[in-house]
Amino acid sequence: MSGFDFSKRDSFGSRMGVIMAAAGSAVGLGNIWRFPYILGENGGGAFLIIYLVIVFAIGIPVMMSELLIGRRSQRNPVGAFRALAPGKPWYLVGMMGIVAAFMILAFYTAVAGWTLEYIYQTLIGGFVGKSSGELTVMFDSFRSESLRPALWFSVFMLATSAIVWGGVRKGIEKSTKIMMPLLFVILILMCIKALTLPGAGKGVEFLFRPDFSKITGNTVLMALGQAFFSLSIGMGTLITYGSYIPKDNKLGSTAVQVSMIDLLVAVLAGVAIFPAVFAFGISPSSGESLTFIVLPGIFQQMTGGMIFAFSFFFLLAIAALTSTISVLEVIVAYFSEQLNMKRRTAIILATGSMFILGISASLSWGMMSNVKLFRLNIFDLFNFTTANILLPLGGLLIVAFLGWFLPGRDSKDELSNAGTLRLRYYSLYRFAVRYLAPLAIALVFLNGLGLLKF
Ligand code: PFF
Predict the structure, then answer these.
(1) Phi and psi for 202 in degrees, rounded to 5?
(2) How is the chain split into domains, by residue range?
(3) Of ligand 1's atoms, which has the minimum distance to the CA of residue 235?
(4) How far is the CA of 30 from the centre of ligand 1 (A)?
(5) pLDDT value for 454
(6) pLDDT in tens, 339-376
(7) Across residues 174-199, what is the average pLDDT?
(8) Counting atoms of ligand 1 from 1, which one is nearest the CA of 326?
(9) How many C-beta neighbours within 10 Å does residue 374 have?
(10) Is the dihedral of CA 292, 54, 454, 66 positive or negative?
(11) Which of 12, 80, 228, 255 is deepest in the core (most CB within 10 A)?
(12) In this structure, what are the phi and psi dihedrals at residue 376, rounded to the nearest 5 degrees?
């Protein structure tokens, strides 16, 4: 049993703080780095429409469920299931979330570290005069070095820990309230710059004009996986944040607002990137290198390109930071509440273990390149296992718990703030958590494992 004093739990102070912290978790590399390249590889506008439908029909209900479980139980993901389902094995869903948190933090912080290298490169003029071939070599040789990727990982990890060290209200809430608006401003400026490039129209058209002939079963599943990753759902991050949300907060509207901000940032990232991609004649399906190889190439051909490059990688770093703190908080809340550690001991222990995992992940193309499991290096293994297995499985179990285990009156009571709010959407929500979301998630999961092929 935990000896943690739950009456002393930290919490978010304001409604704005809740939105900024949760949107900070959702908005990240997933929106700005992953979304554009996945959309680029999956048919542009048609993908966007499917993505939209999925966010509304599945993403929002799952997000509401996580916030609900967190706030009702006032616990970390493991403690939450232990409190709401005593003596039942549901807490294993929380454990799975903790494992996922370690793995995501390792590879995600490694990518976040790359953004620091790229900020540094823009400052020393490292891209200037390089052809796209040379930029590819530059990216590949950076990744396969033994020192720099690990160094940048460490810097980013320490920045993450420093914010979490400050606590929920004074660290996470305060910092995200500054970083999120800043991110928005930079992104809008970048969109304006991109839209005024000659030939920008083609990129806009690619993003917004659907070509339905490009849709396959796989497109739908890619969109579903992307939605999970982007909204930070399926591993208890929003259970943890939900547990810090005041009792008078409307969880339904919080989930809707956070999802809309996340969606908007993804679309704006598309607006900032595709006009440039088309204006400079690059293929939109260049894959995950789009951000780190293609964009520097584009930036240096633009007037004021280095300022643009600096802003872009700085934006990426901030977006990543407001996400990494949410993942670290999951581990810290678990250590301190379930294992009864002092919060600061928990942070030191979590950070220490992350150094081992994360440095290994960031050296996946360097010193650790021959450490492989199922033919995947450490980075790819963490990336694959979390996005394709742990998040969908976690999400499926979370909605199953909500839809089929927790009594309906409990979820209604929590969503309606003990009956003080009228919930016009409740039957829709109930349908989503009982049938729609579990079925849809089961499909992604089976596809991810290759058990079902479309
Ligand atoms: N949602 C984040 C992004 O889009 O970059 C990534 C992420 C954060 C995933 C937190 C999962 C998580 F728990």
Answers:
(1) -60, -40
(2) 6-448
(3) 13
(4) 7
(5) 58
(6) 999 999 999 999 999 999 999 999 988 888 888 888 88
(7) 83
(8) 10
(9) 8
(10) positive
(11) 80
(12) -105, 140
DSSP string covering 4-37, please?
--GGG-----SHHHHHHHHHHHHSSHIIIIIHHH
**Can you tell me the distance from the alpha carbon of 124 to that of 279, in angstroms, rounded to the nearest whole number?**
26
Q: Kindly report the protein residue whose alpha carbon is nearest to atom 7 of ligand 1.
A: 232
Say which CATH class 6-448 falls into: mainly alpha
Distances (CA, A) of 122 to 127, 133, 186, 187, 300: 7, 18, 16, 18, 10
Pocket of ligand 1 (CB under 6 A): 25-26, 28-31, 104, 229-230, 232, 235, 237, 323, 326-327
Mutational test site, ligand 1, from 183, 232, 238, max ligand atoms within 8 Å of CB: 232
Is residue 206 within 8 A of residue 278, CB to CB? The reply is yes
For the chain, give the mean pLDDT: 89
Atom of ligand 1 nearest to the CA of 330: 13
Which atom of ligand 1 sits closest to the CA of residue 320? 5
Per residue in 412-454, pLDDT tens?
Answer: 999 999 989 998 899 999 999 999 999 988 886 677 567 766 5
The number of the ligand 1 atom at minimal distance from the alpha carbon of 391 is 11
Site to probe by mutation for ligand 1, drawn from 231, 323, 383, 385 as the one with most ligand atoms within 8 Å of Cβ, is 323
Two tokens at 155?
A: 């810097």
> Count of CB atoms within 10 A of residue 338's CB?
21
| Maximum separation of any 2 CA atoms in the chain, in Å | 64
Question: What per-residue string of b and e applies to 256-287 under the rule 16 or more CB within 10 Å gives b?
Answer: bbbbebbbebbbbbbbbbbbbbbbbebebebe
Cα-Cα-Cα-Cα dihedral sign, residues 340, 344, 345, 349: positive
Distance 130 CA to ligand 1 centre (A): 32
Please check the confidence at residue 282 and state whether its pLDDT lies above 90. Answer: no
Taking the CA of residue 31 as reference, the ligand 1 atom at the shortest distance is: 4
- Over the stretch 85-140, which tens digit does the pLDDT of each residue have? 999 999 999 999 999 999 999 999 999 999 999 999 999 988 888 877 788 888 88
- CA 409 to CA 3: how far, in whole Å? 30
| Ligand 1 atom 9, closest CA | 232
Which of the listed residues 33, 35, 104, 386 should we mutate to test ligand 1's pocket, taking the one with most ligand atoms within 8 A of CB? 104
Q: Is the pTM higher than 0.90?
A: yes
